[in-house]
Structures are given as C-alpha cells and as structure tokens.
Amino acid sequence: MEPQQAESLFDEPAEAARGEQPLAVRMRPRSLDEVIGQEHLLGPGTPIRQLVDRDAGLSLVLWGPPGTGKTTLATVVSRATKRRFVEISAVSDGVKAVRAAIDQAKRDLGMSGRQTVLFVDEVHRFNKAQQDALLPAVENRWVSFIGATTENPFFSIISPLLSRSLLLTLEPLGDDQLREVLRRALTDERGLGGRVTITEPAEDHLVRLAGGDARRALTYLEAAALAVGTGEIGTEILEKAVDRAAVRYDREGDQHYDVISAFIKSIRGSDADAALHYLARMIEAGEDPRFIARRLIVHASEDIGMADPTALQTAVAASHAVEFVGLPEARINLAQAVIHLSLAPKSNAVISAINEAMADVRRGLVGPVPAHLRDGHYKGAEKLGHGKGYQYAHDHPGGVAQQQYAPDVVNGREYYRPTRHGAEARFSDVLDRLRAVLRGRSRE
Question: What is the reported pTM?
Fold first, then answer.
C-alpha cells in the first residue's frame, strides 16, 4: 500500500467534499493556536513552539490516549513549517511504504530542498525490523519523523529510534476543553454551522461519554446531529444516537465521591457484585481509569495487606494494563483486580503499623542510630566506633542475629500486629519467632 501524501489536507476542500468528511476531520485545527488542550506542549518556549518558530529539523514521538490530538499536532506542525506531509499507518503499511516515502523525501530534498514530515500513526505496531528501517532517515535528517503511539513508548518503540526523538506526552482533554471543542463544532461553518443546538444535560452527558477523547465527542455529536436534522439535541436523542444510557454521575460533584466511597467500601466488605456495579458505573460515566486503578492500589495495602500479599501485585498489574491497553479492553483487567481484592482476606495491620510509626516520629521519638549499625566504611569511622560489634545476620542460624536495630527511644515497640486472617496468620507466627530471636527471649 502506498503511503498517503496528505498535502491535500492543507488545502480547503470543495464544499461538497468538505461535507462528506467526518465532523472530526472537518474540525481538525489548522494552526497551533486553534489546538484545544495540551497547553503544556504548546505554550511559549515549549519544544513544539520552538521547532515551529525556528523551522528546525525535528523528530518527535507523540504519546497519548486516542483522541488527544496526535495526528492534529503532526499535520499542524507540517503546515506551519511548510513541509510536505506524508502519512503512513503502521496498521496497514509496511517496510515497502516506509522506504518509498524516504526515497521520495531524499529526492525532494536533493532537487528542491523541500523537506518532508513523515508521520507514522500507531508506530508501536511496527516490529523491530520495521522500526529499524526508519533509523537512517531520522539519523540523516532526510525526513522529520513524527510517530504517534497510544502505548508506552519505552516498551513499544526501539531504543535507537526513541533516543533520536523528542518524547512528548499528550493528556486526555478536560471537561471544559471538550465543551469548547463541541461548541466550536456546533457554530463553525466547517462543522455544523449553527444548524443544531444542544441542551446542557445532553452536553454534560456527551462530555462524560467522550472520556477525554475529542474525536469520540465529535463523532457522537455528529451522530446526534444527523438524528435531529435541525433543532435541539436533547439527552434522549443523544442516547439513541450513540446507543448508550445516560449515567447520572457528576465527576466533579457529590456523586463522584459517593460512588468511589461505595466502591471501596464494597471491596472492603467483600461484596464483589456491588463493587463490580460501582466499577461499571464509573467506567460508563467516563471516570479516568487511572484514578480507579490508583484507588485499587491503595486499597490493596490499606485493607488487605499481608493477609494476601498478591493483592498489591494484582492491583499494580491492573494499573499497568490501563496504561498499556487502555479502555475499553482495560475494563476487564480492572474487573479482575476488583474481584481479587473483594474475595481476598482483609487486614488493616499494614496501615495501622505505618501510622503508629509515623505518629512516634512526629512526637519526637527519633533517637540516634545505634553505633553498631552506622556506616563504618569511610576513613575515621572506626575511631568513632561506627560498625563496632555489628552482627552479620548471615553468620547466624536462620540468618537472624540477636541484635538491637531500633533507636533506644523506640526499642521494643511493636508497630506491626498481624491478624489471623489469610496468609497473615502465617506471617504472625514468623514475626513471633523473629522477635524472640532479635530480642534474646524465648517465645511465650
């Protein structure tokens, strides 16, 4: 498949052709100033601004969720720098298309001096050999490479290509930014030109459904506009157009806190079914899945802890899956973590232990480190008695020596008090044996 030479994107299409394009394409920004969101990348002095203003050679990797503007930034940068724009999709194109684009770029550069922006969408789908094919062009500046990826580039893009590129991270659009995208599309002649309006509840629901994805928001808006023809888009019309039930859930209001509170309390109470219900409500309402994953990680240690040490591993793995896979597929990983945590034995001994230890520190119980534990490797440490009398644990039976580790002021305090729930019962027995050896006393 030949690479798409997208120079035509920079020309205003005829009225009929423009009307046939999807709304998301018609509303694609034409300059950096029209881009909504990503202020951390587009403000004065930022790398993209400098690259555009100076028309310098560039190699970028744009990493972010779908609909955050990766393709938009690539086309806008190309337009602003007056370079030829060639787009390749890693889903459908291969090395042949890459080499053809690079060969044409070299000819243009040699014959007319015109530079080329080579945009590779979904670059993470290229295997190592395909990504290797890009290296000579990037290294020799035959093209200005821009790669777009929704997956973590440190795992999905080869190191030589990543090291030669500036990595820019795009964030999901906020609710206010999505509203601005929608309102511009409603009034702009490139969009719906004022032919339809939208009620505030419908706009709120559309923003929730979009989940930070501008392309999704515009696609849903276009479907609703086609359904209504002219006039006003209400929630009922929007629901029918996108085939999704409105979820009564305000991410900024009381329900946000009520639902997440009920979610965590359901897991703590071992009710997997209720927890899954609240998970579904949050996902359907457009809650940030990373927020859900973070709460699961906290809960795994706060309410389960050593009663099931694998709970934390599961929660962290679910968080990684959210970053690596994204929604909608990551809902499965989150659900697995929710079920695991709900069914796990519960213990709050870990959070109680760290809270008590921190309370002692805040009360000033921070005595000096025992001399035998201090660093004895530097010159003069021996004269100070540092390290003298230290018992090397591996020289003793069971790898444990009778020895004081805590400062005198808190020596003998027992912060961790394990329960008899799940695996913590075993750890309770182990802890009793260890404390007996460390403190030179027989077990009671």
Answer: 0.54
